[in-house]
Amino acid sequence: MKGKYEIVVKNNRLHYEFEIKRNITILRGDSATGKTTLINMLRQAENLGSSSGIDVISNAPCRILEGPNWELILEHTEGTIFFIDEENAFVSSKKFADRIKNSDNYYVLITRENLYTLPYSVDEIYGLHCSGKYHNTKKMYQQMYQIYSNHQRLPVVPEVLITEDSNSGFKFFKAVATEKGISCESAEGKSNIFHILEKIGKEKVCVIADGAAIGPEMDRLYKYASNRENIYLFFPESFEWLILSSGLIQGKDIHAVLEHPEDYIESRDYFSWERYFSKLLIEKTKDSYLQYSKTKLNEVYLHEKNRDLILKNLQGIKLENTRTKESNNDEF
């Protein structure tokens, strides 16, 4: 399943409208924000049809996934957008993650939990709010909004870089940081980022990680960074996405993919968009001087022209030579 889906769920009093474009979407928020009502409306529409008085408008079937037979339902269903309420304990289980990994469905998970078994994007974590579209009527108009839309509190000139893992992305930033006299450390996994941040002093720190799968860690990272003026978060889709977006790799098809990745990424093939961009970059550079490997950095990406194209894509992050700054300070 791929593509973007506009969904409307409405009756004579309530109107929900939103878009779904990835295999996993998280919908969260406090009580009385309309999440449970949305589930109930979808359940009534599914069970009672037109007699429910509820219209569900979507180019893909919308269903509720719940109860003890959830595995059997998944086994025999594809091309469907499933909505799952947090009352279903299976949503946080490894078994659920394994079942949906190669699934041809989309999933909207209504939960306040951080689901560490799932690789969901920071950009697909939403809340619900009531807009003023029907301000002069009794109808309530509910829309989704990105909870972490301002998570990249930039610009910044960092003194320390922290990357998510130790693959080519870390090796690239480590080489650039060393040249600039900046410290660069690998967290060796997204779950370790928070623990490294706790050891940081007053230096300006920029965390660079794959936004495509950082969602489970985002709640505590965002809260921690919000309380520390020296911590900045930068979450592009992935390091491979940064390279593809830099213009270094030519091709109209690449531009098309970057403009609307949801139209190209099959949910059954790619649990996370990061994996798709990795495969795309490897395929587009195969047998060329830019040949890319996720585990071993091709030194050609550190050549000045290529390096600068990639760094230019780090909007809001300026890597300055700290040695030069220290030298200039010594003159005074």
Automatic annotation (TrEMBL):
Gene Ontology terms, MF aspect = translation initiation factor activity
> Which keywords label this protein?
Initiation factor, Protein biosynthesis
According to UniProt, the name of this protein is Translation initiation factor 2
| Species of the source | Zhenpiania hominis
Q: What is the lineage of its organism?
A: Bacteria, Bacillati, Bacillota, Clostridia, Peptostreptococcales
